[in-house]
Amino acid sequence: MTLPYLPRLYCLAMASFFLVYLVASMLVSLHAPLAIRTARRLTPRRAAGFVLALRLLPFTLAGMALGLCVPSYLRFEPELFEEPVGLACLAMAVLGLGICGAAVSRTIRAAGHSGMFARQCRRSGHEMAVADQFPPTFVVPGSAPFLALTGILRPRVVLSKGIFEALSREELSVVLRHESAHRTSRDNLKRLCIFLTPWIMPWRGGGRALERAWNIFAEYAADEEAVAGDMIRSLALASALVRVARFGCMRGPATEATPFLGEVSELAARVDRLLAGTRPCEPARRMSWRKATLALLAAGFSSAIMFQPATLQFVHSMLERLIA
């Protein structure tokens, strides 16, 4: 099939996106079990960051490839009227477009669910200042159990009236400390990033294993930060976990909410860790202006290297092979 100048660009961009995504996903899937075993030797906070970076790596690399494809094509590709494109390139372009379409569709769906749930909470529930050191909490009526940190830009703790009444003051206080740890580390935003980056490798040990590992490590880190090495808080949080678990499985907007129970299969392990006494954990910190400045400088330096003429010419030579 022959395509004009701009349609060829779209085709090559999507094909290169898919090819890099596929290769990176295969490599991550193959090494995911080893990566998870390695992460278990780290502190929960570092382990969560490590497996999250690995889970998002294929989409990140594919996006970088897309960013290199466009300028190299525009700079070195002659503006011929038409040029033949191979069937393999067309097939990969269709698959790449499907991945991007799935990501956009998930974004729209997540935004819709988040807005709808927030409106339901404001309409049916009411804010309550449970403790002075924590933001107001939404208490919603109904028998359905719910306790989670919801929202992306302004996360709020939402819990059902039944759970609110079942928890003691000490248990509720440490539960809010736990959810505050999730808020500080922006776990809802990280959960959304995972949801918006589809995983294309179906076999076991890949993206789903990394997602589950991230959920577990994030909960361990929030538990450690909530109790801060205090045995009384550890007992209160363990009691709260068991008490909330008795209400049954909680349902909610999975894309933008961090449920208090997390991975239900890990409930016993979390309780055992708390009863054994968790070590004090370094709290999650927001990115300071110094770290942000260093990150921007590193990104600028990397971009300057990537967009060198020699780099773009090499990328264009790879595109010429891909289009055949």
Walk me through this protein's architecture:
- The protein has one domain (2-323).
- It has eleven helices and seven strands.
- It has helices spanning 5-39, 44-76, 87-124, 161-166, 169-184, 187-195, 207-227, 231-245, 267-276, 289-306, 309-323; strands at residues 2-3, 83-84, 126-128, 137-140, 147-150, 156-160, 257-259.
- The strands form two sheets. It has a five-stranded mixed sheet, sandwiched between helices. A two-stranded antiparallel sheet has the order 1-2.
- α8 (231-245) packs antiparallel against α9.
Biggest sheet character: 5 strands, mixed
Please, what is the oligomeric state?
single chain
Structural class: alpha+beta
- The pLDDT mean sits at 80
* Global shape: elongated
Indicate the radius of gyration in whole angstroms.
23 Å
Number of extended strands: 7
Low-confidence stretches: none
Distance between the termini: 11 Å
Strand percentage: 5-15%
* Lateral strand order in the biggest sheet: 3-4-6-5-7
User: What's the number of domains?
Assistant: 1
Helix and strand arrangement:
Layout: E1 2-3, H1 5-39, H2 44-76, E2 83-84, H3 87-124, E3 126-128, E4 137-140, E5 147-150, E6 156-160, H4 161-166, H5 169-184, H6 187-195, H7 207-227, H8 231-245, E7 257-259, H9 267-276, H10 289-306, H11 309-323
Features:
single chain; 324 residues; alpha+beta; two-stranded antiparallel sheet; 11 helices; elongated
In short:
This protein is of the alpha+beta class.
